[in-house]
UniProtKB/TrEMBL annotation:
It is found in: Cell inner membrane; Cell membrane. The keyword Transmembrane applies. This is Iron ABC transporter permease. It holds the Pfam family BPD_transp_1. The keyword Lyase does not apply. It is a multi-pass membrane protein. Belongs to the binding-protein-dependent transport system permease family. Residues 64-274, 357-549 form the ABC transmembrane type-1 domain. It comes from Georgenia halophila. Residues 563-601 are annotated as: Disordered. The chain crosses the membrane at residues 12-35, 68-90, 102-122, 150-175, 196-219, 252-273, 301-322, 361-383, 395-417, 423-444, 490-510, 530-552. Gene3D superfamilies: MetI-like (1.10.3720.10). Keywords: Cell inner membrane, Cell membrane, Membrane, Transmembrane, Transmembrane helix, Transport.
Amino acid sequence: MRRIRTALANPQVIIAVICVACFVAPAAMIVQGAFKTEMFGDGGEYTTAMFVDVLTSSDVHDVGLRTLAMGSCAVAVSTVVALFFGVLYTKTNTPLRRVVPVIMFVLVATPGLFFAIAWGLLGNQNVGLINEALGAWFGEQARVVNAESWWGIVLVSSMRLVALQFFLLLGPLLAMDRSLEEAARISGAGPVRTFFQMEIPILAPALTGSMILSFVLFLESFDAPQILGVPAGIFVVPTEIYQYLSSSTGPMFGHASSMSVLLMVALLLLVYVQVRVLGKRSFVTVGGKESRMLRRDVGPWRWALTALLVIFAALTIVLPMYQLVRVSLSPFLGADAGFSLENYEDVLTSPRMVDAYANTLRVAVLGAFLAIGASTALSWAARFRSGPLARFIEYSQWLGLAMPGLILALGVLWFFLEVPILSGFYGTAIIMVFALFVAVIPLAGRTTGAAMAQIPRSLEEAAWVSGASKYRAIWDIVVRLMLPSLISGWLLCFVVICGILSTPLVLSASGTNYLSVEIYSRYVEGRAPIAAAASLLLIFAFLVLGAVGLTLSRVLARRTKAVTPNPPPGTAPPQGLSTSSEAVEDTDPERSRTASSVRTA
């Protein structure tokens, strides 16, 4: 009993237990399911037949090669576009350049389900807005845009990856020393040669890391391939796994687990490579006080660049939103008249849809709170990078990155059914909350990690010296100083949870309605106007919550800034920042600039 009390007095022990339940247990269940003939109960035998069957299947080989090709194209396109807009925002005097972070932030916050549905309607060959415009201008033969195609999936996925890569590259671009470009100009190099021969090599670690992370996210994506690819008979690894689960002959759990294990191994390797690449700082240059960004006057080209910016905003925000609004007011898909609010009335008066809204909001509110709390604990534990327990906490999170929503849902389902004390929660909101909060922990960690890096450990150490316990120091110092960032992170997790499709598709039981599943069902049933109306109602709720959260976050940030005393001029930095190796790494200029840019957006 004394050992248990001693362990509970150490927050790292509790965090390690959380990592076991959230990451290790679901992953272990997936591995077990790949080699066991009966997943549930004590029956069944262990065999490699199902794993070998998947590994030697020609269909699986085709799906794997197709996923690799599509992911490579999506990453290449998104990297070029993200780098273009990063340079446009940081190095030119292009008009409207200040709206670039806003556009990218909206893209990051838009659920993938709604974005895929909007482009499925916008790029419809028969009634899509783009094809209608092309047909009116150039004739019927010009209706060539088809979102439900190989390139449609690639382009829609690329547009969402652009926003992530933009924010990953923004810090290194802002940190680049102006003196390097000035030296190249004095040496006679033009701007194009300077960019490709000097700046691109300097950005190589950041570019490589963002490309690897983007490829990982493409392998995890399910919404766009399921909505745009399955109707056209185009399958990637996540949708192939779902096909095993929804097979007409019954769920093939062993085959789905085997394919999930292969995907997990590939993702773990990519995550490992990403961590190794991003850990290299040898190419990063940071100047002193005289280092400042050189903003180039692009002359008449600024209007062409502005036009490209407007086109990108139209393709990613304006046109998809307009298409959703238009379809939501239509009596049927493709209607040119008879617009009304009848679809909204049907959504708001449908008991099933109202129940789905209520369930989704409850799950999203609680799941976002749990995700922010868990990611804060993990970020805090990352400050203590010594000892086997700290290393276990750090490495176990890789399993979370390597489990897409579909695989995570499988692992959580089997974990709850295998543990007797948890089996009673199947079909309830508890299992859904658990799976969704684990799914967004990596995203929440981006917010809490950046905020935690700005709080020196010396403040906690001062609280400990004053007699405060570790838990009280965490609450009174860390949590309070991070509160504005925690609110922003909660809002982002709330939006993402509401739009996740893969996890509810697997875990939704009969009689339990979840909004993303209801919207997806109506879309594939041909009731696109109802799906569009339901999506827009939820987006409106996002806007209201976002406005409230942004206001509250700014008020708290001002109060925190007013309360926190500034050190007098000439004072040395806190001891935790000057002597602690992990603190020095956390205050890397690239990371702090990126976090500042995201908060500004």
